[in-house]
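> call design_seq(struct)
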């Protein structure tokens, strides 16, 4: 399945090491336009300034969680259809259900590798 790796991606995580890991994995997959934000509110500001084709966000962040960011994105007229992948350390069923109900496109549980990330992105963006 073809993947448009020129799609701008926004990685949102309050843990700098995780941002670096995800950016490296995205680079391995072939993505070249990758920005970062350290929490949901910073991410939302960036989403208003630039057209992204994908958001990859951690669930647990302060002051604004990835779940709250997802709900804001889905409630925003211009951003409501933006592909959104949530990352979490624990695969709690209630979190998966809540994220699905809030409109998440896909879900990743840490730790993951480039192939897992790629398959999730293909499932969301693949032509």
């Amino acid at each position: 399945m073809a993947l448009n790796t020129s799609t701008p991606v926004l990685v949102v995580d309050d843990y700098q090491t995780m941002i670096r890991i995800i950016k490296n994995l995205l680079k391995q997959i072939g993505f070249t336009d990758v920005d970062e934000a350290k929490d949901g509110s910073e991410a939302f500001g960036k989403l208003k300034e630039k057209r992204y084709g994908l958001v990859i966000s951690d669930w647990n962040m302060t002051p604004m969680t990835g779940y709250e960011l997802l709900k804001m994105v889905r409630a925003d007229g211009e951003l409501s259809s933006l592909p959104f992948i949530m990352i979490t350390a624990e695969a709690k069923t209630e979190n998966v259900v809540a994220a699905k109900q809030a409109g998440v496109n896909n879900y990743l549980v840490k730790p993951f590798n480039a192939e897992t990330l790629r398959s999730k992105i293909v499932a969301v963006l693949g032509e």
